[in-house]
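RESIDUES AND SHAPES:
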Amino acid sequence: TAIKFVSEKVGQDKIAEAFHIARIAMVLSLVISTLILVTLFTFTAEITSFFDDSFNQSVNIRLAFTLGFILLFFQGIDDMLIGIIHGTFNFKLGAIIELSTRIPLGISIIISTYLHHSLIEVLVIMMFSSLVKTTLRVWALKKMYNQNLLSGVFDKKIAKQVLIYTKWLFLQNLGSHVFSSADKLLIGSFLGASELARYNICTQIPQYVFSISNSFMSTLFPLISAKQAKNKEGTNYIPLKQVLSLCIISTLPLLFIYVISNHILTIWINEDFSNNNYSLFIALIGIFFILSVSIPFHYILMGLGKIKLITIASIFAITITLLMMYYLLTLGIIGLLYSKLFYSVLLFLLFLYFYKRTTYVKKDIS
């Protein structure tokens, strides 16, 4: 939420107002994240009832969900903080903090999975990493502005503007979080613990690499938002060559993973696991590859203030895909892969359609 309002004020050289908005957005983020956490804790029993008995016996399911909910809480706060940092165009600072925590996290997860194959241990590692990352971001912002994010006057008028914008962003993020967990919920419920374990392992690396592209492309949001705040006329012009270049760059990390895919699972787990699950691993890389093509369109639309269009497109695609998952899981994991492939293509087409309606793209490719 903060990134839009902060980047607009920074684009207009109103730094004090930018930090004032950031402070209000942070307070709202804490309140909303706490309410969501309490709600999730309240319905933990109902959520865990979706899993079959074999999964409940192999994993302390309530503890896993408790740790997952706490992780979501920290993620919500961290998303707000990185939005504030990116909104002030301190991309270097954001990258340093991200890399200094993400690389140790990735290594720790790989080692933990290899040695213990414990979901609880992985969640604890992720939760600790999120706590460290959030603490570093708060400390960096305090040093940057020599002010406390949680002190100062609370402006109700600004808070109302932020909440109106947050309404659509909240729906979008809620849908994304539900969708990112739904596949695992459905597999655990319909196919059992063993299928969930192999799917989860094969998903981790493509999803992790996809998040790298997503983090890199997220810089488009504040840059376009600030440009639009400076000059309302002509800001929708984006050369087609640049857009296509961004799409290619966005897919490069996953393309690299595909090139070395023969060796990744063997090194990470073992040769037997790699031989039995290589096709699943490649299919998931392909799905995230298609999703990565949509990333530039997503952030360009965000920068142009089209959050409502993005939310409508995302919720529509998620709803259709969840229905497909529910019925196609009778085919096994292959049914879920068909559903996720459909989602990737549909989301790209929806973003492309709204993008063409919103932006003026000059055909500058001969």
User: Anything to note?
Assistant: The two ends are 39 Å apart (CA to CA). The mean pLDDT is 78. The chain is about 85% helix and 0% strand. Residues 156-190 form the longest helix (35 residues).
